Amino acid sequence: MSSSFKSIERAALLRQRFEIAGGQVVETPMLQPAGTLLDLYGEDIRARAYVTSDALRGEQMLRPDFTVPVVQQHMAGGAEPARYTYAGEVFRRQEHDPDRANEYVQVGYEVFDRADAAEADAEVFALFQLQLRGLPLRAATGDIGILMAAVDGLSTTDMRKSALRRHIWRPRRFRALLDRFAGRVEMPESRKALLAGEVDTSAPAIGKRRIAEVEARIAALKADAEAAPIADNELNALETLMAVRETLPFALEQMRDIAVDLPSILPALDRLQARVAALRARGIDVDSLDFEASYGRTSMEYYDGFVFGFYAERRPDLPPVATGGRYDALTRQLGQGGEIPAVGGVIRPDLILTLEAEENA
Q1: What is the sign of the dihedral through the CA atoms of 194, 200, 206 and 211?
Q2: Helix (H) or strand (E) holding 171
Q3: Roughly how many angstroms between the first and final C-alpha of the chain, as a whole number?
Q4: Which residues are annotated as a binding site for L-histidine?
């Protein structure tokens, strides 16, 4: 039996288990409108997706994931509460890692429910852990919402906080902005010249509103240059927060201490506390469950709360076997005025089969 057939067979079994758990089977087109994905992720998505063009439908992308089209379907008229499951191929360009598959099967489970966010988080995590029992995997968890709350609580301008929030998923850019807003780096000569009025903005415009856009950008940069740097105690607290990596109870304790200088994270920590209780109630060993405050910042751009992943530590060359998290904000972006709390995850049957084969060898 070929490996691809085995993967499809295992995907069908996983989807059946998710159906038993309450998921309604949904299908999504393999070609997705590029406009929606570009609006969500910007031009960066082109480096990770396969783009094509259709004379009638315009620019299209081979499905890079299922979550976005499932959210769109639900927000267009799904019942509440709702649970969905699906299985099928996704397509990701792997230019920086040609050894990784650029086409593979995903099986997913998504929960749309307003009743109890902590309980929904625990439901999804426990369901995925159950599918992976017996495999030598490490579970990692995090919470993007805590970092967002920390940024929102900084004593700085709204423009700076908006820029930091936008780049939470790009750690290098986030770090560069943080250093700049804290006054740790010298202003580039080009920016000094711009602020000093040494740049000619009267040159012929190329494209619509170019001059107006340049002038607005200069005004924004001048306002930023006049703003006070982020306070040292807040900056140090944020850096300490991003470095938190402990088992869940100890991580929560550390972050409670950090909240002395970043009180804006307290509501998010209370939500984490409720999640810990919900996980414990489902039999999850939270005392040995890893928590990383910066987890999910490089690969989970639409998540804005709880995030998790399962990894084969003996095979660091492999991508995560399963990942998931909460994406309330995505439902607002795609909801055309509506929104609903949502959490879900995906699992890769091909990686399960690879690890099982190694265990049985």
Answers
A1: positive
A2: helix 171-181
A3: 17
A4: 65-67, 92, 106, 110, 297, 302-303
Burial-class residue 248 by CB neighbours within 10 Å (0-12, 13-18, 19+): buried
Per-residue b or e along 1-21, where b marks 16 or more CB atoms closer than 10 Å to that residue's CB = eeeeeebbebbeebbebbeeb
| Partner residues linked to 291 by β-bridges | 141, 246
Q: Where are the domains of the chain?
A: 184-228
Q: What is the pTM of this model?
A: 0.88
pLDDT at 46 (0 to 100) = 74
- Report the binding-site residues: 65-67, 92, 106, 110, 297, 302-303
Q: 327-359: per-residue pLDDT in tens?
A: 999 999 888 778 999 999 999 999 999 999 998
Angstrom distance (rounded) from CA 164 to CA 162: 5
Cα distances from 297 to residues 147, 156, 300, in angstroms, run: 10, 22, 6
Distance between CA atoms of residues 166 and 301, nearest Å:
10
